[in-house]
């Protein structure tokens, strides 16, 4: 993302407080982007699992399926990490 | 990617340049997000609606794609709500095992 800043003397053009502020801003924008990226990934995955026919509105069943799909995906991710940790502990 | 070329050192000028950088970052991210969404919709709705590609996009296929777009964005919002509420719940119970 540093490529967005002017090329020559990029740091010298801003005083220290402004550099700090911009750093914080970039950090939060980065977090927001990662969040959105995850939402894209989950929507992709859960769309395939939950949406069969294109109707005029997403019905209750599909909505529940989408919500559960996100929750269970995250549970799976936590489960895998936990299990790997346990395996590692048992080995040492 | 153009920047204001007047790099003076007055503080209001610096404030302006800071705002310009922030606006640029916001715009680029919004654009990237929109592009990602469009690509996904294209992929998903093509596979749902155009089952047998003919020699033109049939009007029934267009109707399907239009509906599918709306449904995909609806799904995106549902997923977004579910994920954000999960993240909030979990940061609330930070430290407790799941």
Task: Walk me through what this model shows.
The complex is a heterodimer of chains A (92) and B (98). With 92 residues, chain A is mainly α. Chain A has a single domain, classed as Helix Hairpins, CATH 1.10.287.810. Chain A has helices spanning 16-50, 60-91. By secondary structure, chain B is mainly alpha-helical. Chain B has a single domain (11-92), classed as Mitochondrial import inner membrane translocase subunit tim13 like domains (Helix Hairpins, Orthogonal Bundle), CATH 1.10.287.810. Chain B is built from two helices and no strands. Chain B is flat, with a radius of gyration of 22 Å. Chain B: Heterohexamer. Chain B: It comes from Rhizophagus clarus. Chain B: Residues 24-84 form the Tim10-like domain. Chain B: It is found in: Mitochondrion inner membrane.
C-alpha termini separation of chain B: 46 Å
What's the helix count of chain A? 2
Instruction: Give average pLDDT of chain A, whole number.
Output: 89
CATH domain fold name of chain B: Helix Hairpins
Write a brief caption for the model:
By secondary structure, chain A is mainly alpha-helical. Chain A has helices at 16-50, 60-91.
Map the helices and strands.
The complex is a heterodimer of chains A (about 90) and B (about 100).
Chain A: H1 16-50, H2 60-91
Helix pairs in contact in A: 1-2
Chain B: H1 11-49, H2 59-92
Subunit structure (chain A): Heterohexamer.
Pfam family, one (chain A): zf-Tim10_DDP
InterPro entries (chain A): Tim10-like, Tim10-like_dom_sf
Features:
heterodimer; A: 92 residues; mainly alpha; Helix Hairpins; 2 helices; 0% strand; flat; B: 98 residues; disulfide bond (chain A); mitochondrion inner membrane (chain A)
